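Q: What would this chain look like folded?
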Amino acid sequence: MIEATIQTTADGAILFDPAALAQAGTAAFDAAWFEPGHWQAAGAAVPLRGGRGGALAIDAPFGPCVLRHYCRGGMVARLLGDRYLWTGAERTRAFAEFRVLATLAARGLRVPLPVAARYRRDGVHYRADLITRRIEGATSLAELIAAARCDPSHAAAVGAALAEFHAAGAYHADLNAHNVLFGAGGVWLVDFDRGEVRAPARGWQLANLARLRRSLLKVGAADAGEAAFDRALWSPLMAAYERALGSPRRARRVPA
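A: My prediction, written as structure tokens:
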């Protein structure tokens, strides 16, 4: 388990893994490492596709990482942009996601290791950023579908991996095709913003799967028809999911 340290700043705080500082050979976490301009000026940043906000792949002194600034979506973004209501340090989006990732990683699940989280407070609002280890050479499920390279074996691998996460109580608030990656060692889940570690329950697990199904349809997995999608991808995914949970007779289409 990561023994995280908190470093106070003039307008907030940074939660970080001390091992990252040991790699960087410094005694304090540099707030500039959360600034996209710092990495862009050094030629050490590449924008990442998929997801919301400005995620960057960065080559940091502590290794290849991903820097993500938290941004709101939907109509509320027009009003608040990247600001969130302050309710305490540990309830900031960045600190909460850092803690969830650290817990899941300690349980042996394939999630990106958290490096550092930051919040900057401004009155009743705050802004936040997160740095995580990069999953090198990974391909998202959305990219496989776009390239017409997703087959039943990929779907089954996703189903088995999701069963592993669900059995461990890993709730992903935005389970979509962009946040499911194929990388070293198998299937990884990324972007646990608003995620939780909770008691396993059929209700939220099926809701998670239904969200993924909607995402797959949105990115074009059913361009040849929903029946063909069910036969080629969704049925293998669900069969592997239920098999991994030890209840194959319950395999079925989840509610849309």
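The chain has eight helices and 13 strands.
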